[in-house]
Request: fold
Amino acid sequence: MTSDAVRIGVAGLGRAFMLMLPTFRADTRVRLVACAAPRAESRDAFEAEFGGTGYSDVEAMAADPEVEAIYVATPHQMHAEHVEAAARHGKHILVDKPLAVTLDDADRMVNAAEDAGVHLIVGPSHSFDAPVLQARAVIDSGALGAVRMVQAFNYTDFLYRPRRPEELRTEEGGGVLFSQGVHQIDIVRLLCGGLGRSVSAMTGAWDPTRPTEGAYSALMDFHGGAFATLTYSGYAHFDSDIWMNNVAELGGDKSPEVYGRARRALEGLDAEAEARLKTTRTYGAGDAPPTARHHEHFGPVIVLCDRGDLRLTPDGVEVFGDFARHFEETPLSTVPRETVIDALVAAVRHNKPPAQTGRWGRASLEVCHAILHSAETGVAAELTRQCGIYKEEMTP
Ligand SMILES: NC(=O)c1ccc[n+]([C@@H]2O[C@H](COP(=O)([O-])OP(=O)(O)OC[C@H]3O[C@@H](n4cnc5c(N)ncnc54)[C@H](O)[C@@H]3O)[C@@H](O)[C@H]2O)c1
Reply:
């Protein structure tokens, strides 16, 4: 542990925390000093592993002077309350995606952080994946000219992973848009410069036993001229990891034996039993995912530029120029999700926020709502709350 490690309090010790656990265990630039969680067994497990103080209430944890920054990993609809509590006590914030469910909540959060003078970072999100950042770096180098078109698509078993009941109710942040679409939107916005202009979309809610959006297809255009298609299905039949070298979302090798496993695990479960199943993947009950041999990814992404194209892979970026192609490998760190901690440390220690600020997260959330709105009304939705990659580049 470095002596100036950022001292983190964690709000919510569920699945999202489990996925960050390998990072927190391995990265000496951060130290977990407190947690807030309603379940005593999670708090006990936390104190046994990390020491520090377990609280049953986020506000009390936020008041702890030992805590410098709070990682908010509670359900979407609680993010606003917990971010506001952190800001009230002058703590920097890393809030898991999506920033919030409603744009009103997003406004409250952005204002609370800015008024308190604390950093608000939305992550982890797949826009922090090293190959995505590498693609952005290739674009920034200017070697390929302007970005013209992006295609992003992902076919997963998302809708059949065990859920809390509200995760299947769109108005409470359920469905694929808020939990999954927001990753894809973040990636596409990062590659296209961030400033979306409008979105036309259609959505699908095809399984009456899980009555929320399980799929969408959207066409989005950007200030500057680029446009993008974003397609997602969580209906667990075709799996696009086959086009990602058979590497699963978290970077592990995808075994063909997992086919049908998500649906099978839910067979015969009522809502309560399903929510209970979800908690078996939580801290103090299950363990963190195994070490991966590749980067995390969010499905195939192709970027077309004036003088060449990019294909994102779980190991780097394939660059297709006019006369030659090459592969830019992104070496795997011993610390998973290291780029998220890079961003946190740069913000907290050096006052340099990443692209994925609260305003950025609000802009991605706006696109989620725009997709739903366009699908409902049949007309394109104009975007008015976008922000560019750098803080000062606000929508004209
Ligand atoms: N980035 C990722 O890879 C990733 C993956 C999964 C989830 N997430 C995000 O993380 C968030 C949580 O989702 P999840 O799947 O981990 O849900 P979850 O239900 O597994 O975990 C949420 C946790 O919050 C706790 N909690 C509830 N109320 C609380 C309160 N008032 N104070 C403190 N803790 C409280 C619950 O006990 C639970 O352990 C969501 O916003 C989701 O989008 C991100």
In short: The first strand starts at residue 6 and ends at 11. The chain has a mean pLDDT of 95. The radius of gyration is 20 Å. The pocket of nicotinamide-adenine-dinucleotide is lined by residues 11-16, 19, 36-39, 58, 73-76, 78, 96-97, 124, 164, 179, 278, 282 (CB under 6 Å).
